[in-house]
Specification:
Elements: H1 3-29, H2 38-59, H3 100-110, E1 120-121, E2 126-127, H4 134-137, H5 145-151, H6 170-173, H7 176-190
Antiparallel strand pairs: 1-2
Length: 192
C-alpha cells in the first residue's frame, strides 16, 4: 500500500464517518437537525465531497499511467500457456504469415485507438507512456505471446500498470490478416 492509497483511505473514511454521523447519530441527539445549521451543514458536506473528488483525481492510481518511480515495465503475471490452436483461429498452431509493413500501418493509424497513441516503440516512432514500452516488454517474447496481449490485454499486465488501461476491442476491430500483420511488425520491431 503506497502513500496515495493511505491518503485516499483517510479522506474516504472521513467522508463516510461524517455521513454516518449526520444520518444516524446526530438526528437522535438533535431531532431538529440541521435546523438553523443548514448552511453550515451544506457547506461542510460540499467541502467533504469536493475534497474526496479532488483526492481521487489527484491521487487515484487509475489516473497515473506512468510506471511508479520511472521503472521500466516488466511482467507481473506468468506468460500464457501455448494453446493447440492459434489465437487467430487458423487451427494449425502457427500464426499466419503477416506483412510487417502493413502491421506498422495498423500500429500507427488503422487500429482505433492506434497503438502508437499509448505505447513507446522505436520502430514506429512512438513515444507515449500511457501503456508499457513495447521495446522492453516484448523483447524476448515469442510470437504467440503478442496476439494474446492484443486480444486479451489483461491476461498479462506489465509492472507499474493497472489492468483495464488497454482497450479490449482489438479482437473485434482487427481481422485475422490484420492481427497477423500487426504481430509480424511487433516481432520484427522487438527482435534481438
Amino acid at each position: 500500500m503506497n502513500r496515495n492509497d493511505v491518503i485516499l483511505g483517510i479522506v474516504a473514511a472521513v467522508l463516510v464517518g461524517f455521513s454516518l454521523f449526520v444520518s444516524i447519530v446526530l438526528p437522535r441527539r438533535r431531532p431538529d437537525f440541521p435546523g438553523r445549521s443548514l448552511r453550515v451543514f451544506v457547506l461542510v458536506s460540499a467541502l467533504l465531497v469536493v475534497g474526496m473528488l479532488t483526492a481521487v483525481a489527484v491521487l487515484g492510481e487509475s489516473h497515473h499511467f506512468v510506471s511508479e518511480g520511472g521503472e521500466s515495465a516488466g511482467v507481473t503475471n506468468q506468460p500464457p500457456t501455448t494453446a493447440t490452436t492459434s489465437p487467430t483461429g487458423t487451427g494449425t498452431g502457427q500464426q499466419p504469415a503477416g506483412d510487417p509493413a502493413a502491421g506498422k500501418e495498423i500500429f500507427t493509424t488503422t487500429a482505433q485507438p492506434p497503438c502508437s497513441t499509448c505505447h513507446t516503440l522505436k520502430e514506429a516512432g512512438a513515444t507515449q507512456t500511457i501503456g508499457p514500452n513495447l521495446d522492453e516488454v516484448l523483447k524476448g517474447k515469442d510470437a504467440a505471446f503478442i496476439p494474446e496481449s492484443i486480444l486479451d490485454p489483461n491476461a498479462v499486465v506489465a509492472t507499474g500498470y493497472q489492468p483495464g488501461i488497454m482497450p479490449q476491442t482489438y479482437g473485434e476491430q482487427l481481422d485475422e490478416k490484420q492481427l497477423a500483420d500487426l504481430v509480424a511488425f511487433l516481432v520484427q520491431a522487438t527482435k534481438g
